From TrEMBL:
The keyword Hydrolase applies. It comes from the Bacteria. This is PDZ domain-containing protein. Residues 318-349 form the PDZ domain. The chain crosses the membrane at residues 6-27. It comes from Kangiella taiwanensis. Belongs to the peptidase S1C family.
Length: 389
């Protein structure tokens, strides 16, 4: 009897358990589905849902706002007699009955304010007597020359109109190697305005300006156009240079840094020319001992003494004065050949480019402090700059 009661007890609770399990299967089937039906975990590979199917615009909006500030420039010279020396190269002949020829240059330009001032390269205006500015709308305007600076290759023009778009010249240069840039200009008279993209490849100083080298493609006719950054800010005025290698022309794309252009524009507005300071000396790098010795005709003893003085300086620092212009600023300050200039206004000097760079934007009558070595001793001298001819 007890055995039957025990078995009944077991069967009772077994049935209760099966009933509970059946309820779970009915109301929560996903907990008991086969693993074969489970989908793999895909949280790391699932692509986001694209809510906006609008195509990417890239830099189109930015370029649409800045390109109208860049114009085409056509510069025509006066007529020269066909038998004159001027008619010997790169000319477009006038009709035969005129017995004459004329230069016809084309390039690009950039409006820099809403008063009608624009800049271009000086070489675009070579021998020009008539200058026509063509807007992106097709409108043509005559331009007058305010001033030309051949050394920096910058010219300032003005039209009798108020442009709707312009690109301001910045006070400082914030561009860096690796920045995205866009070159805007008119490649030649047969084509409309173009835009090319690249990066800043290098930055350097040469002659009287700082330059940007870029791999954004330029063509003849781009000279004087705009180089802008990804925000549409003007960072340079494009200038194309050429090199001849084995009879072929190789084009190199450069731009004059925009804040240097601002300095030139300010001078051209005020004086019609750029007035630059001048030290009145020639120099060579301290590491070029052999060339210095040949230039100054040093004997072995003098060469050895110069070598000893150079050895006292950090490697490559300073330039050796090789020539003094009579009655020039350096001569009046009593500098001498074989003096080694090491600093100008506290800035270390390693080569002649550093020396020019230290005074390139200083006007005549500015005072600079020159630190130099003579016979192993250090000297400081204030020099009043003259005017570069």
């Amino acid at each position: 009897m007890k055995l039957l009661e025990f078995l009944g007890f077991i069967i009772k609770y077994l049935l209760i358990g099966l009933g509970i399990a059946a309820l779970f299967i009915v109301f929560m089937p996903e907990r008991f589905s086969s693993q074969k039906d489970e989908k793999p975990h895909t949280s790391q590979t699932t692509q986001p849902i694209i809510e906006n199917n609008k195509p990417q615009q890239g830099f189109a909006d930015m370029l649409e706002s800045v390109t109208p500030a860049v114009v085409g420039i056509k510069a025509r010279s006066q007529a020269f007699p066909l038998n004159s020396e001027a008619c010997s190269s790169r000319l477009q002949a006038l009709p035969p009955e005129t017995n004459a020829c004329a230069f016809l240059n084309n390039g690009s330009g950039v409006f820099i304010d809403d008063k009608g001032y624009l800049v271009t390269n000086a070489h675009v205006l070579d021998k020009a007597s008539t200058i026509v500015v063509e807007l992106t709308s097709g409108q043509q305007l005559k331009a007058q020359v305010i001033g030309v600076d051949v050394e920096s290759d910058i010219a300032l023009l003005k039209v009798d109109a108020e442009p709707s778009h312009f690109l301001s010249l910045p006070e400082t240069d914030q561009s860096r190697v690796g920045d995205w840039v866009f070159a805007i200009g008119t490649p030649n008279m047969a084509f409309n305005q173009t835009v090319t993209q690249g990066i800043i490849s290098s930055k350097f100083f040469s002659r009287v300006s700082h330059y940007i080298q870029t791999d954004a493609a330029l063509k003849p006719g781009n000279s004087g156009g705009a180089l802008v950054n990804a925000q549409g800010e003007l960072i340079g005025i494009t200038s194309l240079s050429t090199q001849n290698e084995q009879g072929e022309k190789h084009y190199q794309s450069y731009a004059i840094v925009a804040n240097n252009v601002a300095h030139v524009v300010e001078q051209l507005k005020e004086h019609g020319e750029v007035r630059r300071g001048w030290l009145g000396l020639d120099g060579d790098m301290t590491i070029n001992l052999d060339s210095i010795s040949m230039e100054l005709s040093l004997n072995p003893e003098q060469k050895q003494r110069l070598q000893q003085r150079i050895n006292q300086l950090p490697y490559g620092k300073g330039i050796v004065v090789t020539g003094i212009n009579p009655q020039g600023p350096a001569d009046q300050a009593q500098l001498q050949p074989l003096d080694i200039i090491t600093k100008v206004n506290g800035k270390p000097i390693y080569n002649s480019i550093d020396l020019i760079s230290a005074i390139w934007n200083l006007p005549p009558q500015s005072t600079v402090n020159v630190e130099y070595m003579r016979a192993g001793k250090k000297y400081n001298q204030d020099i009043v700059l003259g005017q570069r001819g």
